[in-house]
Design goal:
By secondary structure, this protein is of the alpha/beta class. It is built from 10 helices and 16 strands. Helices cover about 30% and strands about 25% of the residues. The protein has a 6-stranded mixed β-sheet. About 5% of the residues have low confidence.
């Protein structure tokens, strides 16, 4: 059997607010479906954050369900877990009845047993890892903030050392880099697969995106397959503010980006590349000239470096470590609200912090309280 593995689709119409950058996630999802069909895989595994929000417009939902139906028609199963972005008691994917929600469930594939778990907080995560079905699984499919990837400052829910010894492979979403690596834990090897995001979610992310192709043997073969994605040039002119050289570099990049788009038959909506320009605050005239020359040919991002080497991130820039993804406020909730003494307040706070639409969640909570009373 063959598996195509992806995560962090973040299906949405656009990414950066106030920027006309559209359809990257939808195009990536179409590629995943096409690659799965062309490679004749048996199962597509999706490790969370399949949608960017809990409350969505019709377009990303329509694309998502269309892809699920195409996989179903090709006799390809879909197994998925939820991330914190799209978390629902009834997942959006359940609309199609063509996908298996693997949360707290197991699936078998020849020599391997798979188990899954949606994004959860530390206490719930440890309960899952020390009970069925995790203790019988060869492969875990999850979506978590891990200590080894993000460090203590991002309030991880767990560590790879928490994974039970019977597990050979951990497939995890949330971290937006494509990584396959082995960890030596208690004298045995744990292979960790992070598919990474399927498209750029931040200007600081790597622009090359991939999915994994894996088989079901006892020692699986794992390959990375590329996805076509919008190109990025990162140009630092803070130490050498030479307008002519900067223009030449951007022009050369634009030519390469166009060749890449043609070679991969990319749709027009996702062809316009990104240019990230770092410049000295004193050279604002150079930046404005580059903007005037290339604004219609590329999406321009700017990072200002002050004369004393302090960096100033422009308001329209996105940071790679996304506060929404790291849910740090949720991670310290127990320090401020005692779940045992104030279960109602704790549940409400947890619900609002986990929600991408807190106002809607609050309205629902109020209605539920009125109904109960």
């Amino acid at each position: 059997m063959k598996f195509l593995i992806a995560s962090d689709l973040h299906l949405s119409t656009h990414i950066w607010k106030h920027r006309p950058i559209y359809h990257d996630s939808l195009y990536a999802w179409k590629q995943i479906v096409d690659v799965a069909i062309s490679c004749e895989v048996d199962v597509v595994i999706l490790a969370g954050d399949l949608l960017d929000k809990q409350t969505n417009t019709s377009e990303p939902i329509a694309w998502f369900i269309k892809g699920l139906h195409e996989l179903y028609d090709a006799k390809i199963d879909v197994w998925y877990t939820q991330g914190q972005h799209e978390m629902q008691s009834r997942p959006w994917a359940s609309i199609s009845d063509t996908a298996v929600h693997l949360h707290m469930q197991q699936e078998e594939a020849e020599d391997l047993v798979f188990a899954g778990c949606d994004f959860c907080q530390e206490k719930e995560l440890q309960e899952f890892l020390t009970n069925e079905p995790a203790l019988n699984a060869d492969v875990l499919i999850m979506h978590q903030v891990w200590l080894e990837f993000m460090g203590e400052e991002c309030k991880p829910q767990g560590s790879f050392s928490d994974i039970p010894d019977n597990v050979q492979i951990l497939i995890t979403g949330d971290y937006h880099e494509h990584i396959v690596t082995d960890y030596e834990i208690r004298g045995r090897k744990l292979t960790v697969l992070s598919p990474g995001s399927t498209h750029l979610r931040s200007i600081a992310e790597p622009e090359d995106k991939y999915v994994f192709l894996m088989d079901s043997s006892r020692k699986p073969s794992i390959k990375s397959l590329p996805l076509a994605s919008r190109r990025v040039l990162r140009l630092d002119v803070s130490s050498k503010p030479e307008l002519k050289a900067a223009k030449k570099a951007i022009e050369g990049f634009l030519s390469l980006a166009e060749d890449y788009a043609e070679e991969n038959k990319m749709p027009e909506a996702v062809r316009k590349p990104l240019v990230h320009i770092t410049y000295n605050k004193e050279d604002s005239e150079l930046a404005s000239k580059l903007d005037a020359t290339f604004n219609d040919k590329a999406h321009l991002f700017y990072k200002v470096v002050r004369s004393y080497q302090e960096e100033e991130l422009q308001p329209n820039m996105s940071s790679y470590v996304d506060a929404e993804d790291r849910v740090s406020m949720l991670g310290v909730l127990d320090n401020y609200v005692d779940e045992m003494r104030e279960p109602g307040a704790h549940l409400l706070a947890k619900t609002l912090l986990q929600s991408n639409e807190p106002l809607l969640s609050l309205h629902k909570w109020v209605k539920d309280q009125m109904h109960e009373n």
